[in-house]
């Protein structure tokens, strides 16, 4: 059956460094299950995209682009493939040296873009697209960002509700976001996709958007950064811990308060978001320093 309209999809997954035989989750595209794999061989890594459709008598002719996405650069290869049976696949090898140059936080992000040109042995219902898995355009002021609805929904309660539970936005191909700076939103997306690490220049912007869009993954990564790597002052870290309910960071900050001057500096900040429990903890800490 020729494809009556363009059928394209994108799958992304971040694989752990040198993890042998790691599979990404199975995802449904056009009512067909697919999954990615990164396999560690003796001298290289091999990236696979598997088609898990059962039965026989069908085939899918497609163009693909597989990308290995690094912090500042990406390496991509294009090709064609025919999927025609259970466990049929497309694959590409990547030398270890090339893989190392694209690692971000000891992980390798792999992206497959598939354009289906022909489907044989399917009826219309079998090959109809799953709208929940389509990409969507988010407009932020004059900037537009094409995002994977499923990926963003998995990383943000706000976007999950917007894409999949809001009847007002259902079926839209473009949604405008308000009260957000496009550059900050771009950094937020790159952190979610693990294309860029969090640093002291971006952590406060990422925290703000992670809270705004209810992204527990981004909040957790900001908290880990502030605990392990950040050079930000104690008062900034403590205020962030209270404002964004980062309990591990708050505990770390309390243990790092070594003098009453430290506590006084924190208390002199705009502390309207401190509740009675926080003030009690600060008082107990001050008394313990006598």
UniProtKB/TrEMBL annotation:
<dbReference type="InterPro" id="IPR008974">
    <property type="entry name" value="TRAF-like"/>
</dbReference>
<dbReference type="Pfam" id="PF00651">
    <property type="entry name" value="BTB"/>
</dbReference>
<dbReference type="InterPro" id="IPR000210">
    <property type="entry name" value="BTB/POZ_dom"/>
</dbReference>
<dbReference type="Pfam" id="PF00917">
    <property type="entry name" value="MATH"/>
</dbReference>
<feature type="domain" description="BTB">
    <location>
        <begin position="134"/>
        <end position="196"/>
    </location>
</feature>
<dbReference type="InterPro" id="IPR011333">
    <property type="entry name" value="SKP1/BTB/POZ_sf"/>
</dbReference>
<dbReference type="InterPro" id="IPR052664">
    <property type="entry name" value="BTB-MATH_domain_protein"/>
</dbReference>
<dbReference type="InterPro" id="IPR002083">
    <property type="entry name" value="MATH/TRAF_dom"/>
</dbReference>
<protein>
    <recommendedName>
        <fullName>BTB domain-containing protein</fullName>
    </recommendedName>
</protein>
